[in-house]
Design a protein that fits this description.
The structure holds two protein chains of two kinds. Helices cover 52% and strands 16% of the residues of chain A. By secondary structure, chain A is an alpha+beta fold. In chain A, the strands form two sheets. In chain A, strands 1, 2, 3, 4, 5, 6 and 7 form a seven-stranded mixed β-sheet that branches. In chain A, strands 8-9 form a two-stranded antiparallel ribbon. The radius of gyration of chain A is 21 Å and the shape is globular. In chain B, strands 1-4-5-8 form a four-stranded mixed β-sheet. In chain B, strands 2-3-7-6 form a four-stranded antiparallel β-sheet, with no helix packed on it. A two-stranded antiparallel ribbon of chain B has the order 9-10. The chains are: A alpha+beta, B alpha+beta.
């Protein structure tokens, strides 16, 4: 029994910590985020060079062959970095969903391009009416020659505006809410019939709404059978995001404790007030809960003895706790920083917004808790 | 990173499971639950553990301990909870014995330890006083030296099972110094001494387990002093760090949760089975999700203990979260049972729910103590603030 990251994982983490200390202070990050695309292409090339983008991919595609534990290890550090580079849309989402798909030709072609930094990707799953439900899909795909044509609308596609390739979930048969009948396609970002309405998100990342009109597409899943593999891929993606969130929570708690030690009111550091101490103990415990459930989930997901029900229970429990405890930690960080917590100048609000984004985009506390309830008591 | 037990530990787990299944008989279980013969049942059960050599896992092996690793102790506790078997009465085996072992002299060890192992003496704990609860060091029970004796005057309170006890271990004031922690001594007092009076305190669970113990000029031989005079606070604090392996009570809570789920399958509301009610499900999962996290917090502490670390403030975290979850489960069990939780009828008169409800209510009411005793949860927060956050 051992709940620590191993030596290789610590080396990976250290390489991120070291690089970000030299190149990604909060002020340097701001410069990077102020690029028109919302991030620095030069940094992205460096991430590729340092091998970070290869971590989650199988060796047969030129990847590092990392497990979910390896991915979690680096995501914690990226969380602390508050990186605006498209790590989540390209490496975690596009890479994760593509890896779980069945089209070997496309995987062999595209995964090496993710790893070498030459390809940016995005995943277009949700639609205006689908909330977090991946079966509530109306975008349609019709056969056209060797390929397909897509028609429909996709909402808040993270990293979509700059993506070279976009994975799109579309209906090939069945009714709007059927799990059978959705298929996964890949399109070029600038293919015919793609209109991308870009906007900035609260955490500095960029997204777009996508409208597809007779857009040519290539099937990458088994026909009608994308839902199951996509759910599996989303499980790992959810854990990776939870790991990112723990990095942020750790940083927020640390920053808050340090601030209360230096901020003086009534002639003493405000950290000497028991009312505030107990609140910081509660946020510390909230973080320890999430961290513990994260390591437990990582252990059990990589242990072939775990049933699919148990895995699903763990991941939905983890994400429920990330959402609830993340909200507590974020709210308390702002509150205990007082007026400073409201300033754009301080990193605190930016961490809080990133944490909020993680829960807004792919499933909030209610969504995951309902999922938990169905598995546990249904 | 992995959560697996070694093959040897899995074999050990099998042996422990077999022991509980053979020795914790249905008859013993029924009498333990019924609760009218607390002392008799405890001693009978402890004799079985003694015979097996498993009565004192926390003691050094040469004095009657088991020599188990932290993981083995954890497995033993987990299996015990899953079998529904009671813990040993802690006051002798887990509380005073470690102090005698570490700070007592050879005569004291020879005199007290074997009797504790065999459950021949029943001990109780004399720490809290009417005027000193969380501020324990403010205690005022006074022991004045008179020749070969101390003369003890004062009162201890919240003394669990003092009515059964042969001995009480006390913190008493033997001196007044600038720091109140100095001047405290650790004294063993025979409950049959002249001037010792036990006054029962009836608690909100309609039960009598708590007492006030009053000392009126009680003469205690000086050989009953542990270690040095005025050093008792140090000994008591060292003791607090012991026996914290199962503080979170994860296995107990897991069993309680499973029982509540089972109950909720048979209870109905206006829409159908309670277990199918989404609101009820969310109340369950609020607790279950925290319990899953607690289990891994507990295992993380266990893993670091196995690597040779002593648990520090993590124990406070486990205590806070563990007791919060226990109380939440007690509350939910009562509400699952519904109006029968109010029934004081303890048998199954006409309906099994009288018994279920009565026991759920008792557990709920007495369960309020868990966030108060052993260092209240507020005191535990102070410990974390100081040690972990450096505040």
């Amino acid at each position: 029994m051992n709940f620590e990251f191993n030596e290789e994982q610590m080396m990976l983490k250290d390489s991120i910590i070291k690089w970000s200390q030299d190149n990604y202070s909060f002020d340097q990050r701001r410069v990077s985020a102020d690029n028109p695309e919302g991030f620095s292409r030069a940094h992205w090339a460096t991430f590729a060079e340092l091998g970070w983008l290869s971590v989650p991919f199988a060796e047969e595609y030129g990847g590092y062959g990392g497990s979910i534990i390896d991915l979690a290890a680096i995501m914690q550090e990226f969380g602390k970095m508050l990186a605006t580079e498209p790590l989540v849309p390209t490496m975690v989402l596009f890479g994760g969903v593509l890896s779980a798909s069945s089209n070997e030709d496309i995987k062999t072609e595209l995964i090496p391009q993710i790893i070498d930094g030459s390809l940016l990707g995005a995943v277009a799953i949700y639609e205006p009416q689908s909330r977090f439900d991946m079966s509530n899909i109306t975008t349609s795909a019709s056969v056209e020659g060797d390929g397909y044509l897509l028609n429909g609308s996709k909402s808040v596609v993270l990293g979509g505006a700059v993506a070279d390739k976009i994975l799109v979930l579309a209906r090939t048969s069945g009714e709007q809410n059927d799990e059978v009948g959705v298929s996964l396609f890949v399109i070029d970002g600038n293919a015919d019939g793609v209109s991308r309405n870009a906007f900035e998100l609260m955490d500095g990342q960029q997204a777009c709404d996508v409208v597809l009109q007779n857009t040519p597409a290539t099937l990458v899943s088994e026909l009608d059978q994308a839902y199951g593999p996509l759910m599996d891929a989303m499980q790992s993606i959810s854990v990776a995001l939870a790991a990112e969130a723990t990095g942020i929570m750790e940083r927020l708690n640390l920053t808050t404790v340090e601030y209360t030690k230096t901020r003086k009111q009534f002639g003493v550091p405000i950290s000497s007030f028991q009312a505030l101490q107990h609140r910081m103990v509660d946020t510390f415990m909230a973080y320890e809960q999430v961290k513990s459930l994260l390591v437990g989930t990582l252990c059990e997901l990589t242990d072939d003895k775990s049933s699919p029900e148990r895995a699903s229970k763990l991941v939905s429990a983890l994400r429920t706790l990330v959402a609830k405890n993340g909200k507590l930690i974020g709210d308390e960080a702002i509150q205990l920083h007082g007026g400073m917590g409201l300033t754009d100048e301080l990193d605190v609000g930016h961490y809080v917004k990133r944490l909020m984004m993680i829960n807004l985009m792919f499933g909030n506390a209610d969504f995951y808790q309902q999922q938990f309830n169905e598995v546990a008591y249904g | 990173m992995d959560n697996a037990f070694s093959a040897a530990d899995i074999e050990f787990q099998r042996e422990v499971r077999e022991f509980f299944s053979n020795e914790f008989t249905p008859d013993l279980k029924a009498r333990a639950q019924e609760g009218s013969d607390v002392k008799g049942v405890a001693i009978e059960w402890q004799h079985k553990l003694y015979e097996k050599g498993w009565i004192a896992p926390g003691w050094p092996k040469e004095l009657g301990g088991t020599g188990w690793s932290p993981v083995q102790k954890f497995i033993f506790e987990t299996e015990r909870c899953e079998a529904g078997a009671p813990d040993v009465v802690p006051f002798g085996l887990k509380m005073v014995a470690p102090v005698i072992i570490h700070f007592g002299n050879d005569e004291q060890k020879a005199r007290f330890l074997p009797r504790i192992l065999k459950s021949e003496d029943w001990w109780c704990q004399g720490y809290s006083e009417p005027g000193s609860g969380s501020d324990l060091a403010a205690l005022q029970t006074k022991a004045s030296r008179d020749g070969d004796h101390y003369v003890v005057n004062g009162a201890k309170i919240w003394t669990t099972y003092a009515q059964y006890a042969d001995w009480i271990f006390c913190l008493v004031r033997t001196g007044n110094f600038e720091k109140k922690q100095q001047g405290i001594s650790f004294l063993l007092i025979d409950m049959k001494s002249e001037g010792v009076k036990v006054n029962p305190i009836h608690s909100i669970d309609n039960h009598h387990s708590l007492n006030e113990v009053v000392f009126d000029n009680v003469r205690v031989p000086v050989e009953n002093l542990i270690g040095q005079e005025n050093q008792g606070w140090t000994y008591a604090k060292a003791l607090l760090a012991h026996e914290r392996t199962s503080i979170a009570e994860v296995s107990n809570s897991k069993r309680n949760l499973a029982e509540i789920i089972e109950l909720a399958k048979h209870q109905t509301n206006h829409k159908g089975r309670l277990i199918d009610d989404p609101y009820f499900q969310s109340r369950l999962s609020d607790i279950e999700i925290e319990l899953m996290a607690l289990e891994y917090m507990d295992l993380r502490v266990l893993a670091s203990m196995s690597a040779g670390d002593t648990p520090g403030p993590e124990a406070s975290l486990l205590k806070i979260k563990g007791t919060e979850i226990q109380q939440a489960l007690q509350e939910l069990r009562m509400e699952t049972i519904g109006a029968y939780s109010a029934s004081l009828r303890q048998d199954s008169y006409q309906n099994e729910l009288h018994k279920e409800g009565s026991s759920a209510r008792k557990e709920y009411m007495y369960g309020r103590a868990a966030t108060i005793y052993g260092g209240s949860n507020e005191v535990q927060r102070n410990v974390i603030a100081k040690a972990v956050l450096g505040l």
